[in-house]
Amino acid sequence: MNTTDQEHLHDTRGQSSLNRRMRTALLMVALIGGFYLLREHWIHVAGNWVYLLLLACPLMHLLHGHGGDGGHGAPPDKPANREE
To answer: What does the UniProt keyword field contain (predicted)?
Structure first.
């Protein structure tokens, strides 16, 4: 390994660390902003919690990911895991 390879490895680690710090900082800002937004508009959220719950159901269905127990993504040679 020559010196240019070592310098390249060092540079990529620095960028990764910077990206992680930037993501962490943005997440913190989003959480703090979300807290203050919720705090200021709590009356509206509390008044409409039923609709928010109903909205959460299809969002959870769409965003839950399709891995796990072999439900609807099982290959044809392996039957789905069912209790009979």
So the answer is: Membrane, Transmembrane, Transmembrane helix
CA distances (Å), origin 24, targets 2, 49, 64, 77: 34, 29, 23, 44
User: What residue ranges do the domains of the chain occupy?
Assistant: 3-63
- Give me 59's structure tokens: 């969002």
pLDDT in tens, the chain (84 residues): 555 555 555 555 667 888 999 999 999 999 999 999 999 998 888 888 888 889 888 888 888 876 655 555 556 665 666 665
Evaluate if pTM is beyond 0.85.
no
Q: What is the DSSP letter of 73?
A: T
Single-letter amino acid, residue 12? T
Structure tokens at 4: 């240019």
Determine phi and psi for 41, rounding to 5 degrees: -115, 25
Cα 22 to Cα 6: distance, rounded to the nearest angstrom: 25
